[in-house]
């Protein structure tokens, strides 16, 4: 791959002007919360960047993440960046199949050992190796093998990042996240179900520009995209502050665009860029289309007490413990109270008449 | 185990458990009080005392007749500020009403969050002032036991963590929410076994005192 | 003969603890407001005198004996048992530093009737032998001689003779079927014999029949003050027996605070049955006579006067309006103290404190509260309706070089009786 065209060459071939390219770099810099002065640096780095080798492994997933990244309604720069990388293995997108496909993976791994990027979508079953295999290789083995030679790993989607839907209770396959298995490589979690496309390209741009991964939050997610809370950035926030809530999806409040907190919106515990970046070319995001945030970029979002239960609501029925509390309280309370009563009655029975001759102590001899 | 899983436990089994213990303890407490019994008053009473008892239940929540400064102003002002602040926060914050709705099926209008926020700040400041008073007044130092500090902390932490969660201070919201709910659960668990029970038993106390005084013809 | 022991004290406390006590102890949050209502705290600033603190041993006993948590702690050896030495130390707080005035019970924000519990606490302390000597002496005299101050029937009869000489009125003894049976407190007989004459004149004017029982004329109930129900019951029983023997309609409690509490509110509970007669305080009787138009007075006092509410009469007894109605009959310039009626401040000597020699100093210190109240009012004199308050106030005023007459209300009214047709004991 020595004479590979640079990214800029490819973009030019696709009809992207230099002006458009710089605009993209500036936008990326801003999205990544870098100072504006960094845009030219990014542009320069990207101009010269050689197509990096990318190996994409799909495990227990639904292809939604790939769909999200590729099914833009028109060619976008994000999409083009994708065209610009050397996606050497992606079993959904690649033309090759069977042995040829696996060969391509092996070749890419050997030629770019230590330099290639590994992208993973889907969770890894640990229960039984047979739950999910590719070319007869278990997901677990393939991940370990490919991760060993990777420069860095990008876990795309909540399944790869945190286990996602397969991990949801009762987790029949023993699904885990990439970071549960690989601990010796830098991992970026690009969570979301699916994640926002620009986050992927942003991370790629950062990697290509600086040769390193962007700053990450405590869950391994790029701070630039996951640093803000949906609730804090939500355009419906003023309704929350004023206490104006939609009580059902078809009431007056819902029609007036009031806060969806009571309908289960998980915005307050969700960190993602949806409220600012939005989806579908900046058209809208879930709350804007009238549905509460599901919290899909957070670990265990499937088990956060029901999509339509308010965040502060208890997540499980409390009936049992309350019943036991009432029963035990009544039983022990009655027992303790009756014991006290018996003790008191006993004191009354042992009462000795007090006369004026009993008011003093026995004189000590 | 990550924080989301912890939060899930706290919102689910943890809450059930603490509510169960709370109810258990309160029932225990009430039965232990009532089963001790009380001798019937044989004196010729001026009234049954029932009306006076109910009046006392309410009137002891109000400032004493006449000069409100008849009580020491410090305890008086901050005592009210704390309790009012606490009740507004507990009862009128929308997320709290949601809890009531899901547990009891009851709902009522909430107050705008900035208003609740002001009351939370008032309650926090008042609690700190009362703690300061406990720590510095010779009278209060003498009366205060370790349990008084414990119940102070049990009340203060939920307020503070709730306030911090709302304002996203220091820690991510998820953490603060977990800490907030966990601290409320701790409060619930220890409630029946500490003098926090006064929240319930004061009505019994006021009733007895008001009723006994009422039988003598005094509105206490 | 059985003697006081710690066990008997603990047993008595266990008998006393009831549902209200448990509710009160469960409700206290150590806010300290009761201290600010107690004149023994306000005049000394000694935190040990905080009313609720005076009950600490009883609180622990309740917790250890009557609650599950406390029993578990006791079983684990984590509970501090109530010791004899502790009760001995608490004796000073419970007897010398509390007049059972009940003011703390009025301000407690959680509604605890602390005084109700102090009364119970005394039950335990007296059974344990930790009552003060002064009260033991008074109680012994009350039981053995019929009066805590040793006033005998002979002494009373001598006073009756004086009344006859002064006013020409007979003091009726042991008259069966009289409407009223009058009780007297030793203090009145010794210090304020004018009371007896006042009563005689008033009943003479109003045409009511009354009597004094030679078997039970003493109203003071030391058993209540020391906190021994057995003894208090014995003293009450004497009055009940006398009243029932003479078939009177109403027993009148004299100008004495706790005597009223003892016979009016505790009495039936002490003997275990309702009374067959009515019990009224003399001021209630006088107010009724006023309402019926039978009590006719003339002239008014020319000085500025105020009224000191005896605690057991107002706050603990419910006799709040009668003294005011009566005072206004004969006083134009009547002023109330800032805290009056059910929120009055105690004189500092009630609840048996006046009978305890060791309490002399603290009692006069506590009087400072009343002194300050009086200084603010700038009155010429003070009216009250309790001989015990009256002695304390007179002593306190003297101690503080304040020259001010202290007048008994009944006496003052008697001085204003319309003289028209009453001379010479016509109705006797």
TrEMBL record, chain A:
Keywords: 3Fe-4S, 4Fe-4S, Iron, Iron-sulfur, Membrane, Metal-binding, Oxidoreductase, Signal, Transmembrane, Transmembrane helix. Residues 62-206 form the NADH:ubiquinone oxidoreductase-like 20kDa subunit domain. [4Fe-4S] cluster 1 binds at residues 62, 65, 159, 193. Residues 226-304 form the Cytochrome-c3 hydrogenase C-terminal domain. GO terms for biological process: anaerobic respiration. Its cofactor is [4Fe-4S] cluster; [3Fe-4S] cluster. This is hydrogenase (acceptor). It comes from Thiolapillus brandeum.
From TrEMBL, chain C:
Pfam families: CCG, Fer4_8. Residues 90-119 form the 4Fe-4S ferredoxin-type domain. Keywords: 4Fe-4S, Electron transport, Iron, Iron-sulfur, Metal-binding, Transport. GO terms for molecular function: 4 iron, 4 sulfur cluster binding; metal ion binding; oxidoreductase activity. It comes from the Bacteria. InterPro entries: 4Fe4S_Fe-S-bd, 4Fe4S_Fe_S_CS, Cys_rich_dom, Helical_ferredxn. Gene3D superfamilies: Alpha-helical ferredoxin (1.10.1060.10). This is (Fe-S)-binding protein. It comes from Thiolapillus brandeum. The lineage of its organism: Bacteria, Pseudomonadati, Pseudomonadota, Gammaproteobacteria, Chromatiales.
